[in-house]
Q: What sequence folds into this?
């Protein structure tokens, strides 16, 4: 019986005669594929990938006594993903005899799909443990890449709030870093509020744990600043804090992030991406909250300066008021009124005398004019015995020829008048 006759796929992945499908090879509801056929096709597709080089972190090693096969669990440092790797003991001893859990490795392997269990694994024929020099070279290459993308740009770094309402802390459980941050921060500002998330700070699960905690704290509106803290350690121990996924997660945070990793000389890539780099967890505590004692002292100094400034201003204005009040016009303000009163009285007196003089002169002029009028008045002439003779039409008779015999005349006297007729 050939491989195709028993209902299995051929090595090149082509369909066998017993596959119930449409003429073009697709399965339908009426003609579904059996599980074995699906498994065969999956295995065939995976086999097409061929041999590949894989980079990862060893999460678990299983060496069974007397067995020639060694099982490894290879984990992605930047994601919660892992694959099972099988290899020969001789291959492991030749490439990485001192391999331990948590180490970084590069292996040459071929993906295989185990149809009986429906699992995927890698079969390795070469394993290389990544040395310190190679790790540093990789970190330097990643550092240049992130710097070129602008993740280290100082212009995008945010200032920390003067007094955060709540501080998010990501650190190891019951670690010295956690104790240093909490103790020193509360010593400086006793009312500081922390939301602490404990995570693995080294090993295969460190990066996913830290990234997950970072997302939780960044989504909390009450958290004003996030601190990522860890104590000192070797370069391998601090590798999670130079992981590309963690650096990009910190760069994407909306909340300011403080990096407090290791000691003064330690400089993981997280230090370059974070908004503020603290040399130690204790230094981070000093940066995130102000010192209450120092702030009280500064407030006291400010109040003293303000009080002195106010007193100086008041004294200066009081001196100006005293100078103004010392002037005669303000020392005895009634003097100005008295002077004006005297001036007004003098003006009134002069005006009265001038008016009286002018009235007296006008009276004399009027008296003289009246005397002249009286002297020239016809009435005065009549009083001396003269009379005015007028015709009937009112014309004054000045000559005898102005009248004729029989004309009536009117004779005006000083007192009264007479009527007469011309006789001749």
A:
């Amino acid at each position: 019986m050939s491989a195709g006759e028993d209902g299995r796929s051929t090595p090149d992945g082509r369909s066998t005669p017993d596959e119930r499908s449409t003429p073009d090879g697709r399965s339908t509801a009426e003609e579904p594929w059996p599980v074995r056929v699906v498994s065969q096709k999956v295995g065939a597709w995976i086999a097409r990938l061929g041999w590949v080089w894989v980079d990862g972190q060893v999460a678990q090693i299983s060496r069974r006594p007397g067995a020639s096969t060694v099982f490894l669990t290879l984990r992605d440092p930047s994601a919660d993903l892992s694959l099972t790797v099988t290899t020969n003991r001789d291959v492991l001893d030749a490439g990485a005899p001192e391999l331990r859990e948590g180490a970084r490795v590069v292996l040459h392997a071929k993906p295989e799909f185990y149809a009986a269990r429906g699992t995927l694994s890698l079969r390795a024929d070469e394993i290389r443990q990544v040395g310190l020099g190679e790790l540093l070279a990789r970190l330097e290459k990643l550092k240049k890449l992130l710097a070129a993308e602008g993740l280290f740009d100082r212009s995008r770094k945010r200032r920390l709030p003067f007094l955060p309402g709540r501080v998010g802390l990501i650190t190891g459980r019951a670690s010295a870093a956690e104790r240093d941050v909490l103790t020193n921060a509360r010593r400086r500002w006793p009312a500081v509020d922390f939301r602490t998330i404990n995570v693995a700070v080294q090993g295969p699960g460190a990066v996913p744990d830290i990234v997950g905690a970072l997302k939780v704290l960044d989504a909390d509106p009450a958290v004003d600043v996030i601190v990522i803290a860890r104590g000192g350690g070797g370069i391998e121990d601090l590798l999670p804090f130079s992981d590309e996924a963690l650096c990009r997660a910190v760069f994407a945070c909306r909340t300011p992030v403080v990096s407090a990793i290791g000691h003064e000389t330690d400089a993981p890539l997280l230090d370059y991406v974070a908004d503020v780099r603290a040399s130690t967890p204790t230094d981070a505590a000093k940066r995130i909250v102000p010192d209450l004692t120092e702030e009280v002292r500064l407030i006291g100094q400010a109040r003293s300066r303000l009080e002195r400034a106010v007193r100086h201003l008041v004294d200066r204005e009081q001196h100006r008021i005293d100078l103004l009040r010392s002037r005669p016009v303000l020392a005895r303000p009634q003097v100005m009124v008295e002077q004006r009163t005297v001036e007004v009285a003098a003006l009134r007196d002069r005006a009265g005398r001038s008016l009286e003089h002018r009235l007296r002169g006008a009276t004399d002029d009027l008296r003289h004019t009246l005397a002249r009028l009286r002297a020239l008045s016809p009435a005065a002439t009549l009083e001396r015995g003269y009379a005015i003779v007028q015709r009937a039409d009112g014309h004054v008779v000045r000559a005898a020829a102005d009248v004729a015999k029989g004309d009536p005349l009117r004779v005006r006297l000083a007192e009264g008048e007479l009527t007469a007729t011309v006789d001749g």
Notes: The CA atoms of residues 119 and 173 lie 35 Å apart. The first strand starts at residue 52 and ends at 63. Residues 333-376 form the longest helix (44 residues).
